[in-house]
Amino acid sequence: MENSAKIIWASPQTLARDGIIALLDQEPDFTFAEIVSKREDIIPALSTRPATNLLVIDHVFLEDDQKYLATLKKIAPHIKVLVLSGIEYDEDILSLMKSGADGYIVNEANKDELVFAIKHILSGNTYICTALYLKVLESMAAVDFGRKGQAVAFSPREEQILKLILEGYSNQEIAYQLFTNKRTILKYRESLLQKTGAPDIGTVIRIALQQGVLN
């Protein structure tokens, strides 16, 4: 347990919260440094526990003050932040990610998804759970690429890669899943951008979703 990740969990106390914390506490890779139920206790917790690796914070503590997360990151610049939210898409997702959030996940997420999200973030990646990511993409204005009415043809391998990206896997993790190497995955990503004319991989995923490829 000495080398396990130290977590501060900040959310209003509920039976559901206490239940998921009890399940996560069984994970050998995690240790709860502190559990706080009030917003005013978060900064003292961060200040007195500098070795903390991850802050899991409920969106309710952030929604009234867009600058609060940036303040927390100034106090503990090394810390990773996972935001818990309701299922409904909120435009705050994008602004919070820009302010320093490393991940965004729904309160209703089960233990397996939470464990994956936490490990993914602690490995230096960002994570948005699939349910929220789909809502983010759906909220964006549609953009037409190529000739009107002409669908982009994705190969089976390209579809596999896009699905894994959508699920939050890194390039290295995708390579492992598909029994190939990271360089090959990067080449596929570059090819997808060229094929669609999209500015980024998120837009490629949106195009695939619009065509029903990833449904």
UniProtKB/TrEMBL annotation:
<protein>
    <submittedName>
        <fullName>DNA-binding response regulator, NarL/FixJ family, contains REC and HTH domains</fullName>
    </submittedName>
</protein>
<dbReference type="GO" id="GO:0003677">
    <property type="term" value="F:DNA binding"/>
</dbReference>
<keyword id="KW-0597">Phosphoprotein</keyword>
<dbReference type="Pfam" id="PF00196">
    <property type="entry name" value="GerE"/>
</dbReference>
<dbReference type="InterPro" id="IPR000792">
    <property type="entry name" value="Tscrpt_reg_LuxR_C"/>
</dbReference>
<feature type="domain" description="HTH luxR-type">
    <location>
        <begin position="147"/>
        <end position="212"/>
    </location>
</feature>
<dbReference type="InterPro" id="IPR001789">
    <property type="entry name" value="Sig_transdc_resp-reg_receiver"/>
</dbReference>
<dbReference type="InterPro" id="IPR039420">
    <property type="entry name" value="WalR-like"/>
</dbReference>
<feature type="modified residue" description="4-aspartylphosphate">
    <location>
        <position position="58"/>
    </location>
</feature>
<dbReference type="InterPro" id="IPR016032">
    <property type="entry name" value="Sig_transdc_resp-reg_C-effctor"/>
</dbReference>
<keyword id="KW-0238">DNA-binding</keyword>
<dbReference type="GO" id="GO:0006355">
    <property type="term" value="P:regulation of DNA-templated transcription"/>
</dbReference>
<feature type="domain" description="Response regulatory">
    <location>
        <begin position="6"/>
        <end position="122"/>
    </location>
</feature>
<dbReference type="GO" id="GO:0000160">
    <property type="term" value="P:phosphorelay signal transduction system"/>
</dbReference>
<dbReference type="InterPro" id="IPR011006">
    <property type="entry name" value="CheY-like_superfamily"/>
</dbReference>
